[in-house]
Amino acid sequence: MELTERGRSRTPQFMTNLPILIHPDPRLKKVCDPVADLDDDLRKLADNMLATMYDAPGIGLAAPQVGVTKRILVMDCVKEEGETPKPMVLINPEVLQSSDETNEYEEGCLSIPDQFGMVTRPAEVRVGYLDRDGNPQERDFDGLWATCVQHEIDHLNGKLFIDYLGSVRRQMITQKMKKLKRERARG
Ligand code: GNR
Ligand code: NI
Q: Measured in angstroms, how far is the CA atom of residue 62 from the centroid of ligand 2?
């Protein structure tokens, strides 16, 4: 496996990369279950999700993308090389408030490789969640962070960015992904 510069610099050896599910997959369409108690296994899962995200590389990752249908997401939208990374773990996240102002962003998804589409979302959101230590937090996100956290929370509700596109474009992307999966399965 080839590590990116980000992956090499940020992924300690003891963390593991997890395989990322490709759309279409029934696990990507499920409404995920809330985390009832945050134990060491779930903390380890979150750490492995961060390692997987940095290695991909991506700016966010939701548990269903690695086959775990629980309400856990990780993200780090610090994009510039050389800037201090800001890994975040959000458990049971909930959007508490959304701005009327919207942002349009060309979104992609690690579960829909190499496909992109414009999605309009609230420009700012206030999100409540439990952090990695199980402490309740409330935080305002804007810019790319706001887009990303809403994209990830959508995953926890079985929703993908292509669900915001027209049905013709969505079906075309889905057909491409089916073909990609067939090719990968053949090897
Ligand atoms: O890495 C990712 N980039 C991205 C770009 C625009 C909007 C959302 C995202 S999230 C995506 C990683 C991913 O699929 N997370 O679920
Ligand atoms: Ni995604």
A: 7
